[in-house]
Amino acid sequence: MINSVRQTVLSVLNKNNYGYITPADFNLYAKQAQLEIFDEYFYSYNNQVNKENARRSGTDYAQITKALAEVIDTFSVTNALKKTSLGVTTFNSNFYLPSPSTTGDDEYMINKLMVYTTQLATGSASAVVVDSLRDSTANFVSSGVSVGDLVVNSSDETFAYVTSVSELTLGLSSDIFTSLPKSYRVYDSDYVKQADRVSHGNITMLNNSLLTKPSTTFPAYTQANELITIYPQSIVNYGQVVAQYIRYPKDPNWTYSTLTGDEPVFDGTASDYQDFELPLDDEYSLVYKILQYSGMSIREVQAVQFGQAQEQAQNISEQ
Questions:
Q1: Could you tell me the residue ranges of all domains in the chain?
Q2: Would you call 188 helix, strand, or coil by DSSP?
Q3: Highest mean pLDDT among 19-28, 84-93, 206-215, 254-263
């Protein structure tokens, strides 16, 4: 889609000799346009929910909230949170929030935080088997391991879910044991609890009360900067804290390989190529938003006004 968007933008600009935007500038404008549309999903979803509550929205194919929820869910990610480096020598229950350096992506918002409280098995892998964990000294059946439990490679901090169980081998949802030696832990999915977020002002009061003190049955967490702190503070291992969150879309990157007649030629096979992550019906919105950025860059008021007019027309049609 990104090449189609760029060609449309260039066509509109060049039609009246407004000017030309470089691939680098286009990628910058494309990133901002995608972020704008992504952010609008949540406001549109809220508006549609309010309309449904007021009985001003349709059902079946006219149920816009369903379509918006499906789009937002494409950005839903579930990841185990990384421990802070302090955990090596200091007792603490601090974990990093999702970020490119820890989970590979930035989080827009955390939907829920799950805490695995019961460990079923621990040991070291004895052989490398694709998409599996094999331990010749274990008995996963008698340990109570079942499909859906969480397996953590505690040597390199990766995780997978159990897909099949035998005495010595667990089938896994991904290949996390590719070399030896690798230690592991298995957590029971039947004892995963959702942690409640509490303010820093309330956590002291909760911890000092026998009735409200966070426990493995009712865990809680606070958030500060790039860290979260889990209570009770006996939750200290990687894999015990798993976040389900909405991530930001990846930055679009229109790539090219060569120049033909001083024009870059699109190359969708480049290693750093990244298409838009929005649905196809947002192509129109991407075009007019990028046109607005382009018009401001080349100081062409008409290009900006054209993009704004198209945006207003679409907003009116959606009301």
A1: 2-74+253-318, 77-247
A2: coil
A3: 206-215
